[in-house]
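Field log, afternoon session.

UNIT: design team B
ACTIVITY: writing a sequence onto a fixed backbone
BACKBONE:
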């Protein structure tokens, strides 16, 4: 029987928290799909804060020494990151528009590479071709409908990603729980 301090007990507790985290991912994903504008603005604000923290990190690295060129380089990067982050935080809607346009370009380019990859790889799966075509179409649709696509694109895609991540993690957590139960029954005999 799995006791609290045993490895099986620890694994059981870990999978419990893993399942809780998976459920939170699913809830966040559904929220982002239902409210894509709020989720998209949240992503834009997150990117702004990440740049601010990146700027601070560069300033900290500048004071670790390493010569004048390195210090100057780190200070310049710190200023650029900090200014970009503050600008993004002060203009989250413009940031969302910019990120959406960038996202459209990235999805389109990935689609092109997968389309080409299908013809370059011997015995490539037809799903690679389908995925490449779908990505190209999605990228073009986001681009054509920009800036109005900013309202839904990032939030919806982030929501779908969170939802699928949550479902995958939930299935892994449940499978882990089942395996622990089987091991526990074998050990208890």
């Amino acid at each position: 029987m799995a006791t609290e301090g045993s490895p099986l007990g620890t694994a059981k507790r870990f999978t419990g928290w893993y399942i809780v985290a998976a459920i939170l991912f699913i809830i966040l994903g559904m929220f982002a799909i239902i409210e894509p504008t709020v989720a998209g603005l949240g992503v834009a604000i997150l990117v702004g804060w990440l740049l601010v923290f990146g700027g601070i990190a560069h300033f900290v690295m500048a004071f670790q020494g390493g010569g004048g060129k390195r210090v100057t380089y780190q200070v310049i990067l710190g200023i650029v990151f900090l200014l970009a982050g503050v600008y993004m935080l002060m203009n989250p809607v413009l940031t969302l528009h910019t990120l959406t346009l960038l996202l459209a370009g990235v999805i389109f380019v990935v689609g092109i590479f997968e389309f080409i990859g299908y013809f370059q790889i011997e015995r490539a799966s037809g799903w690679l071709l389908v995925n490449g075509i779908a990505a190209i179409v999605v990228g073009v649709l986001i681009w054509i409908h920009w800036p109005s696509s900013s309202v839904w694109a990032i939030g919806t895609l982030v929501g779908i990603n969170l939802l699928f991540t949550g479902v995958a993690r939930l299935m892994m957590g449940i499978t882990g729980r089942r395996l622990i139960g089987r091991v526990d029954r074998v050990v208890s005999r």
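LOG NOTE: The radius of gyration is 23 Å.
NEXT ACTIVITY: expression trials, pending approval
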